[in-house]
Amino acid sequence: MPELPEMETYREFLHHNLLHKPITNVEIHREKSINQPVQTFKDAVLGKHITSVKRRAKHLIFELSTGNYLLLHLMLGGLMFFGNANNSPDRTKQIILSFGELQLNFIGLRLGYLHLLKKEELDEKLQDLGPEPLQLTFGHFENLIQTKKGSLKPLLVDQKFISGIGNCYSDEICFQAKLDPFRKAGELSVTEIKHLYESIKPVLTRAIQYGGYMDFPMYEGDVKTGGYNSNTLVYEREGENCNRCGAEIKRAESKTIKSFHCPNCQK
Length: 267
Prior knowledge:
Elements: H1 4-18, E1 25-28, H2 38-45, E2 50-56, E3 59-64, E4 69-73, E5 79-83, E6 93-99, E7 102-107, E8 113-117, H3 119-126, H4 138-145, H5 152-156, H6 167-176, H7 190-210, E9 250-253, E10 258-261
Antiparallel strand pairs: 1-6, 2-3, 3-4, 4-8, 5-7, 6-7, 9-10
Helix pairs in contact: 1-7, 4-7, 6-7
C-alpha cells in the first residue's frame, strides 16, 4: 500500500502537471470506486479544473475550481499513471480523468476510491487521522507515545497515532532508531523515545527523495518513482547483511504483523 513518501511523490508530480487544466472527459469503469451516481460525479467534475493537489496522510486531495474536492486513497494495489492513449499501460483502469490528450489513470482501485466531497465532508472524513509526521514536534510526540503500551511496529502504522506511516517505513524508522520493532512503547526510556522521534523525519525525507518504494512508473520515462526499492535499510532485505553492523537481517512475524529488522543492532 502506498505510504506517505509514495503519495508525496505523486503529489509533487501532479501539482506541477495538472493545475488549472480543464477536465475534458471523465470515464468511470467501476462505480464502487466513487461515492456518487456516475452521472452526478461526471457533472460535478467535467469542465472543472484542479486548483491544488495536497496530501493528508496516505490520501491525495484534489481541490476543484468549484470549491469541492476529490479525495483519493489508493489502498492496497492502487496506482496512478499520467500519459496519453498511446503510452497508457495495458491495465484495467477504474477511473480516467482526461485533460485534453493527457489522461490521469487510476488503476487497481479494488479497495481504493476517488470520492467527491464538500469541504465539511472532507474534514469529517479525515478527522480521525493522527498528526503529520513531518510536522510533528518532539513534545507532541513524547506526549502521544507516553500514553501507549503496545509494540512499536503496530503503533507506528496506526493512522490515529501518527498518519502516513505503514509497513515499510515503520521498519525503516525502527532500524534507524536502533530499536526492535516489537519493543513495547511503555518500556522506552526518554533517550530511546528521542531516538525514535529523530528517526522519523530523516527516513521519510530520504524516501521522498528517492521516489518511494512503489515500482510502477507514474509516467513514460519515469526513473524516479520506486527508487527507494534499491535503497531500503531493512525492509524486504531478509537474509542480506545489515549495512550498519554486518549481521543478517531477519524477518519476524507476530499474529498480525511482519517486520524486517537487524537482531544484532536493534535492541
